[in-house]
Each structure stands twice: as C-alpha cells, then as structure tokens.
Amino acid sequence: MIATPGTRSARVTLSLTCVAAAVLWGCSGGTGRGTAPPTPPASLSITTQSLPDGKLNVPYSATLAATGGTLPYTWSLNNGSLPTGLTLNSTSGLVSGVPTATAAAMALTFTVTDAASSAQTNSANLTLTIAKGMSITTTSLPNGQVGSAYTTTLSATGGTAPVSWSLSGGTLPAGSC
Question: What domains sit in the chain, N to C, each tagged with a CATH number?
C-alpha cells in the first residue's frame, strides 16, 4: 500500500493457507509456524553377530534380530543353504529344526526387508556349524559270571576328550564299582 500526502495508512493482514503441503508440514494461517515433517525411520540394521553352533540330530533354534526400519520385517536367505533339517521362518527370523547333516562353518547371507513403502533392506554374512554330537557306540555288554572278575570298556564317538561316564538308570550288580 502506498501512502499519499494527507491520507492515512492502513494495515493489511494477509492470511495464507497451505493446501498441498498441509498434510506433510502441518501449515496453518500465515503464522509461519507448523509441525516439522515426519522423521523417517532409522536405518534398518541386522544386529545378530553370529549363529550358535548346533549338533547333529539335536533340536536347533536361533532367532535373527534387526533394528530400525518399519515393522514387520521379512527375512530371507540370499546366499548359501541351511543344513538339511533346518528352516528359516521369513516372518520371525527363526532358524530352527533338527539338523540331519553336519556343516563346517557354512557361509550364509541373510537379508531383512522392512515394511516401509520405500522398503529398506540390509544383509549380514553369518556362518553356521553343525557338529557331529557324541554318541555311545557300545550297543551291548558281554555276560559275566558270578564270582569272576568282570571288565569291559565302553566306547563313544564325537565329543571332546576327556569323556566321563555315569550310570543314568538301573543299578550295577553287587560288588561292582
């Protein structure tokens, strides 16, 4: 507004309304104040550093973990394959089952994907070892005779020496150690 001599000035108030940006920025009348744009989710990251070793024919269970991104996550195995008997739950990240094959430091690449409209992904290289567990190879004991000394040796494979033995059921005959 231009003031001319002998006229009074008037103050004009301009009211602005944000239409398209109102959803993202929370604009309101010409105050210049609004809410900040939404904070994007933190970067998606796999937090599992290693997988525990497993034993052949023994139930196995390990859950992969991640942080950031938008829940829910989807898990997949990109490189390598799990030992026979193990599976990956794509929703929970649980690796479980009963391994029926051994594996020596098997290299595996797991990937997690979040549920954001612009999905984030992250991968981790982990190794999994399935070792042969200890098993008793002695299947029967020779018969003994009353009044005669009796000795026999039990055998086992796997495990780590030294091995200790114990009686888990039943009783030894009188006079046995």
Answer: 45-131 (2.60.40.10)
